[in-house]
Write a structure and sequence with these properties.
The protein has 273 residues and is mainly α. It contains 12 helices and no strands. Helix 2 packs antiparallel against helix 3, helix 7 runs antiparallel to helix 9 and helix 10 packs antiparallel against helix 12.
Length: 273
């Protein structure tokens, strides 16, 4: 049991789980736009997410608190380096335009983590903008990159999906902000800090309405997707309603981050029948 717990913690702490969430969203994009299997972009996003998230999480802590390299942190560092090598491998298998846009999002990640200007905080600590940066990056990486790499024409459906994906990530991040309310620096001005937990939950529930009904505006309307999205909305609403500061880290770092994976799996199952 102890070994299982250590493996599970490594799975969470090394960002493999969040990497799978991004991978699932790339697969959802390919499904929605009828893109044939494009593993280079999916794998690039998977390993890139692992490297990016580990850099954001552990670089700031290492510089601020000079963390000692415990056994797990050493394992995560080695794993992240191997993932970085694979990011490089898949990067050179992408279309040139995809590479350029990927570098743009890499720059945003660096800006999010590192203080580029003297005596200034990094973007992660800019008051009130963290949630928008995170949602924008997820939309770009899991939606824009696969579309660009597959040379899919930019139509109204693309913009609808961008809005829909942004809302999805925004609401999921709201759950994180509710859970982290007690530990977040007041200067961050997260949504719960500005309007309170109750209003944050109401905001999240209201945002799920346009997320669901935007599906009706697609040119290639899919009734099955409405069924899947309805289940997804109920699931997210439940996570949002039951979120509070006393929840363990697994509530968000495993269960909430599983939402995109569950979404993808539901589509796979429904398509088989």
């Amino acid at each position: 049991m102890k070994i299982f717990k250590q493996l599970f913690n490594f799975y969470i702490n090394s960002s493999i789980h969040v990497g799978l969430s991004c991978y699932a969203l790339v697969q959802m994009t390919q499904h929605m736009f009828h893109i044939s299997s494009d593993e280079p972009i999916a794998n690039f996003v998977f390993f890139g997410t692992i490297v990016g998230y580990n850099f954001v999480k552990y670089d700031a802590l290492a510089r601020a608190k000079k963390l000692k390299m415990r056994k797990e942190l050493k394992s995560i560092a080695v794993f992240s380096f191997l993932a970085l090598l694979l990011v490089g491998f898949y990067f050179f298998r992408l279309q040139r335009i995809t590479q350029i846009v990927a570098i743009v999002f890499l720059s945003i990640t660096l800006l999010y983590t590192l203080p580029f200007f003297p005596n200034k905080r990094n973007a992660r600590n800019w008051a009130g903008v963290k949630i928008y940066i995170v949602a924008l990056c997820w939309v770009g990486v899991t939606l824009a990159l696969p579309i660009l790499n597959a040379n899919v024409s930019i139509t109204l459906d693309f913009y609808l999906k961008c809005i829909q994906r942004f809302i999805l990530i925004f609401v999921l991040v709201l759950i994180f902000e509710i859970i982290d309310l007690a530990n977040d620096d007041p200067h961050l001005q997260t949504v719960p800090q500005q309007i309170g937990v109750k209003r944050t939950k109401i905001l999240g529930l209201l945002l799920l309405l346009p997320f669901y009904f935007l599906e009706l505006l697609k040119s290639n309307f899919d009734a099955n997707q409405l069924i899947v999205n309805f289940i997804l909305v109920i699931l997210i609403a439940a996570f949002l309603l039951f979120a509070n500061e006393k929840r363990s880290k697994y509530y968000t770092y495993f269960w909430v981050e599983s939402v995109p994976i569950v979404w993808w799996l539901m589509v796979l199952v429904l398509n088989k029948y």
